[in-house]
Amino acid sequence: MRPLFLATIAALSLMPGVAKAWGGTAHTVIDRAALEAIPEDGPVFLRKYEDYIAASSLLPDSWRGNSENFSKIEEDPNHGWFREQFTFLKPIPRSRYEFVIALYKQYEKIKDSDPETAARTNVRWTGTLPYAAIEAYDRIVVCMRRVRAADATGENASVAEQNCAFDVIRLGHYIGDGANPMHDSVSSDGWRGPNPQGYTTDRSVHGRFESQFVDGMKLTVADIAPRIGKPSRTEGDMFDAVLAYLDHSGDKVGAVFALEKRDGFANFADKDVREMVYERTAAGATMLRDMLCRAWAESVLPPAQVEPSPLDFANPKFNPETGSAPD
């Protein structure tokens, strides 16, 4: 896999306008740490694709270029979850499209009375990260069923495994982004709104934290591997778990800005900033590992039979605005 790793890194580095998100270092470390923490009763086949997955950790960012606007419009929101923008929405809909429609209804409601807020009441300025993550998770469950089926019959499972590896790239990126508090707040690129603490409004703060500092401190898998315990999140609703994970991360955004006030993230030896990076990247790797193990456990079961179908008007959850019933 090493030649593929180097070739993919080279290709991504040449793409114009690629937003680096956590930065290549952190995304790669999160992915590798998660895969290496999979226990022996988990989807260990994914370890064979560690170099491929790690080398492709920034791939979803490359789908956001201004020159590929169809892809950009769909992909951009998948990398953020700006909670302050939709406090009016409780509970969070269990459907991407119900979420979009709810935002538009709020936009229509406030566009005349509060045009400034209305201008950001849309998916680009709220984000859709938990939907992107749970959609990738569902795809991984499906492809893992195919891996199991091939293994059970003695067939070659390599194609099914490669399909899983590709979806792990997507899930890993979104979960990695969610580990960064700046991806879970409207203050992703400088503090927005009331600012009694005098936090920076400089847009470069995002990159200075997640790329410049992480690269400068030379983050490695060994730094966070001891922080990843045994798999958890083995029960309960996975979408709810993703939302809780993002909430926990977003709650730390003020702490990140407070750390920035010291020296602008220029001191790579700053123990507190380093600890924030260690804790957050370890949390991302843990969440990714847990989701992969949970998907593997779910894949042993046959697909649930949903009657009436989500597309059936008789389904009690059927929503005529989306044409389907949410999960």
Automatic annotation (TrEMBL):
Keyword Signal on entry: yes
Keyword Isomerase appears in the UniProt entry: no
Region of interest (Disordered), ranges: 307-327
InterPro entries, A to Z: PLipase_C/P1_nuclease_dom_sf
Domain of life (superkingdom): Bacteria
GO molecular function: hydrolase activity, acting on ester bonds
Keywords associated with the record: Signal
First and last residue of the signal peptide: 1-21
Protein name: Nuclease
Species the sequence originates in: Sphingobium nicotianae
